[in-house]
Amino acid sequence: MTTLQTSVLGIDFENPFILASAPPTARIDSIDKAFTLGWGGAVLKTITPDNLEMIEASQRYAAWRAGNKVYGFENIELLSHLTLQQWLDGIKFLKQKHPTKIQIASIMAPVIKEEWQNLVKTLNNSEISAYELNFSCPHGMPEKGIGMAIGTNAEISAQITKWVKEVAAKPVFVKLSPNVTNIAEIAMAVEKAGADGISAINTVQSMMGVDLNTFIPMPNVNGKSTFGGYSGSSVKPIGLRCVAQIRQNSSLPILGIGGISNWHDAAEYITVGADAVQVCTEVMINGYAVISALKSGLLHYLETKGFNSPSDIKNKAIPNLSSHEKLPKSEQFYPQINDDLCIKCQKCVTVCDESEHSALSFDGKKITVNKAACVGCSLCSHACPKQAISMEK
Ligand SMILES: Cc1cc2nc3c(=O)[nH]c(=O)nc-3n(C[C@H](O)[C@H](O)[C@H](O)COP(=O)(O)O)c2cc1C
Question: Does the bond joining 201 to the residue before it have cis omega, within 30 degrees of 0?
Fold first, then answer.
């Protein structure tokens, strides 16, 4: 029988869907609700030493939307506002009420050995199942020399991983930033330093836009703004690339994150190397209840394809990733026009003309393809407003 059960480093998740460290995991009562609704686990909103100052801005979000769909989301939010004691009490309460649900403690501290180790020693006695070291928040914290300031430096990342591993009584995931030239290099550095797993990605450093009446960038914080962290559907291609790059260079378990808004996105992450996935923005926009469709969709896909569990599709896409040089380039695809769907707008003709090839023409009745001029690039199929063009050999 097909199951969604997923084991990572000996930690058993009921399903591979974990809430990412963020506002949906910032309060004990709301995590309680999420567990009741079916989430397999939660990475708690990043916990810091109590004396680390955390003054939030208003507004702290901006969104790129088309119609009702939010494609991209930017935030300049900082970390948890609960005290360490509040977390300890909350973790205990949640474990008693939901013994099968997994809690992972996301942590961050200044680059001081005692600060990291004290945090870990305190949390060692709690019911968390693992740690996630936040080396990747791209706003606010780097100004204090932490967050992404750590995760963009392989040496410091390795150093802190070692400090944590010296005292950690639970497995240690390191959460990496996509805002680096080569994320695999940082992954390999923390693996060498003893990390047990990788979480990727945190948000992509961004600027959502500028109000052209006031010239204030978004989000507007009383007339000023700052660079933020970009998340949601539009970062999925970046997250997938990062996870695949890490998988190509490391055999550590990976918690895949970034733009997962449906079961299909989650399955794609697993095929490029994720063991389980984390979700944030989709939940922030649509609520915890999205877990039902995530679970039923993935289960149905696995059943239909004859797989027993998510781990059966893990890494399946990795052998199909190659260097550009080694791509099989001898055979070409050509556009096939579906005349029933085509509205003769000739957009495909225009874009092909104006982007190099002039392989399409309109004879007054239908679009025709000049195979001698066509290079099979597929631009016409993407520009067609009616999806009337498919690429075939
Ligand atoms: C408002 C907001 C707050 C976040 N806070 C944290 C945080 O405290 N710690 C952390 O590791 N990641 C934090 N993240 C990053 C998310 O955990 C996640 O890595 C990122 O949003 C990409 O996933 P998504 O596209 O599903 O949102 C935050 C993201 C958002 C949108």
Answer: yes
